[in-house]
Design a protein that fits this description.
Helices cover 33% and strands 28% of the residues. With 226 residues, the chain is of the alpha/beta class.
């Protein structure tokens, strides 16, 4: 079976004034369907740039990203957007919740973004909310939630459409130890119980251990795999 995520000699170089700054330098790896893979490395190692490349949120300077057989390099901007909406759930360090909406509506809006008709699967929403410990907070707005609760709402939003891939960029970066454990356990549950492929970017080796496999990144390159 072909990989669900594949990076092939991937590079990204930014132009700062008259200077070229390489952020990702010749990265190649593959993630099989149903894996939980952690990419761990220090700040400035190129992890977040790699995350944006893998999610089709920025274009590579060279190389390829292939998602489930679809090559981003061969797709239009509109086609990449459609693939992201239907196949990828994103979790960011910043929660990106809409302040005027309740937690329930922030979660449910994922279905509208994905262009799916009908109502969201309420049973699955409440199952995810219960696992995340926010079932009694669904009618609250973000300003009425703690940081940990807001991140759990953001995670529920990424999970609720059951995308085949979850991409998480430093999902515990702003959380305390207790909330970090809850979010990491939910990512593992999404992988094991719901069958979603998870790729998580993190600077924290302890968080990275929640994955089945770890890739280390430094200076824009994958330096070793475990």
């Amino acid at each position: 079976m072909p990989p669900i995520i594949q990076a092939i000699d991937l590079t990204k170089t930014y132009r700062l004034g008259k200077v070229d700054v390489p952020a990702v330098r010749g990265v190649s790896f593959a993630v099989q369907e149903g894996e939980f893979v952690s990419i761990v490395g220090p700040s400035g190692s190129g992890k977040s740039t790699l995350f944006y490349l893998l999610g089709g949120l920025t274009k590579a300077t060279s190389g390829r990203v292939v998602i489930g057989g679809d090559d981003f390099a061969q797709m239009s901007d509109a086609e990449r957007t459609e693939l992201r909406k239907k196949r990828i759930g994103f979790v960011f360090q910043k929660f990106n919740l809409l302040p005027t909406l309740s937690a329930r509506d922030n979660i449910s809006i994922a279905r509208e973004i994905a262009g799916k008709n009908g109502h969201i699967d309420k049973d699955f929403l409440h199952k995810v909310a219960s696992l995340l410990g926010i079932e009694d907070r669904l009618d609250h707005r973000p300003s009425e939630l703690s940081g940990g609760q807001q991140q759990r709402v953001a995670l529920a939003r990424a999970l609720v459409n059951r995308p085949s891939i979850i991409l998480a960029d430093e999902p515990t970066g702003n959380l305390d130890t207790q909330n970090s454990a809850i979010v990491l356990k939910m990512l593992r549950d999404a992988n094991k119980e719901f069958g979603q492929t998870v790729l998580m970017i993190t600077h924290n080796p302890e968080a990275a251990e929640y994955g089945d496999r770890m890739l280390n990144m430094r200076d824009g390159q994958i330096t070793e795999a475990a």
